[in-house]
Amino acid sequence: MSNIEKILSQKAFNTEYTKGLVSLIFVGNWMVSRHQQFFKKFDITMQQYNILRILRGQHPKAANINMLKERMLDKMSDVSRLVERLRKAELVERKSCEADRRAVDVKITAKGLQLLKEIDEEIESLEDCLRQSLSPKEAAQLNKLLDKMLGLYY
């Protein structure tokens, strides 16, 4: 009996593909939960962290809302609302784009960069669940398999 079957008190799955899908969903939800707990202590959400990382990568240039939407991990996020919350926390600044008044430019602030620096110092604790379960070779194999799946859809 596999771990997922034990955890879910599940009889054997009909196919390895069904078992794989259920396992991916379960592990994905477990990882999201771990991330939510981790980011709580920094008073931000996973989605806000994602925006801050994108903006750090753009720094010192600004990004527009559409670019942030395209690069978000969570495609269902309301980027405008997330940016506004980050602005209120003084982690980003936003202003009308010089070239297109309808567009909004968003830049990370020094306070936002400092927060990311603090998070970076502790982020390895999120990787521990992989590091404790998989060898570097297995992690590379996992990445290769996930990349293969992503190649079918993106």
From TrEMBL:
Alphabetized InterPro entries for the sequence: HTH_MarR-typ, MarR/SlyA-like, WH-like_DNA-bd_sf, WH_DNA-bd_sf
Keywords from the UniProt entry: DNA-binding
Biological process (GO), any one: response to stress
GO MF annotation list: DNA binding; DNA-binding transcription factor activity
Domain spans labelled HTH marR-type: 1-151
Pfam families, A to Z: MarR_2
Protein name: DNA-binding MarR family transcriptional regulator
Species of origin: Chitinophaga japonensis
Lineage: Bacteria, Pseudomonadati, Bacteroidota, Chitinophagia, Chitinophagales
